[in-house]
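We were asked to recover a plausible sequence for a given structure. The inputs and outputs are reproduced exactly as logged, with field labels preserved.

PROBLEM: sequence recovery
POSITIONS: 237
GIVEN STRUCTURE:
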């Protein structure tokens, strides 16, 4: 039976390991931050709950690094406690390379509740930042020539390491967006890598919601299928 990652397994087997996801607990978030460069620093440390200029205690998870909090506060100019997609793009540019608005919209969709006006709050921002740190580690592991870009083979290997063994035809369709028609070897930046990875991860996670027994198959209504797929198609256009 085919899994959504392209692998085959019997109904008694579970899905392949999934890509970096939202931390399940504050302890897990703290461990992720420490592992990927946002851990304790001598003489600096973590905040628990951070007193902000909003006039109340923020809802950043305990252990959130001060740099993450500062990045959020710098762009939340109206002190609403939420940031929009443009502000998120600005905030992430302080810690990572600049992301395209297309990738930002995909991240907002994945990390927020669509019923909550697709706004990023402190807890979502901390989780998103931590997740991107993991994706950066994966990207650098497969950027073997340290060029700051990966090619189609390296992208395939990176996704496969996360449990997403995509068929060649699906992989080609995924990267076709980035081909310029010149015939030169395709190379993806970290921005494009995150976009590709989040599309695969997001669709797989949505499929899992319809397959709670991890059987590798699911029955979807037309409305459910469209609701699941359209947001990813729109963000990819």
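RECOVERED SEQUENCE:
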């Amino acid at each position: 039976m085919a899994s959504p990652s392209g692998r085959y397994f019997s109904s008694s087997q579970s899905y392949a390991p999934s890509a970096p996801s939202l931390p399940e607990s504050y302890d897990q978030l703290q461990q992720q931050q420490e592992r990927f460069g946002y851990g304790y620093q001598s003489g600096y440390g973590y905040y628990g709950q951070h007193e902000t200029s909003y006039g109340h205690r923020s809802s950043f998870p305990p252990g959130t690094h001060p740099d993450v909090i500062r990045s959020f506060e710098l762009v939340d100019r109206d002190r609403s406690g939420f940031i929009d997609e443009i502000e998120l793009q600005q905030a992430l540019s302080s810690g990572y390379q600049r992301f395209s608005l297309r990738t930002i919209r995909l991240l907002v969709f994945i990390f927020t509740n669509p019923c909550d006006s697709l706004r990023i709050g402190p807890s979502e921002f901390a989780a998103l930042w931590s997740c991107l740190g993991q994706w950066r580690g994966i990207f650098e592991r497969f950027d073997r020539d340290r060029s700051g870009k990966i090619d189609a083979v390296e992208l395939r290997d990176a996704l496969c390491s996360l449990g997403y063994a995509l068929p060649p035809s699906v992989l080609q369709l995924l990267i076709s967006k980035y081909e310029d028609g010149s015939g030169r070897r395709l190379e993806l930046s970290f921005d494009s890598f995150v976009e590709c990875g989040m599309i695969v991860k997001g669709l797989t996670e949505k499929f899992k919601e319809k397959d709670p027994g991890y059987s590798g198959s699911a029955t979807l209504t037309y409305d459910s299928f469209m609701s699941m797929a359209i947001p990813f198609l729109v963000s990819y256009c």
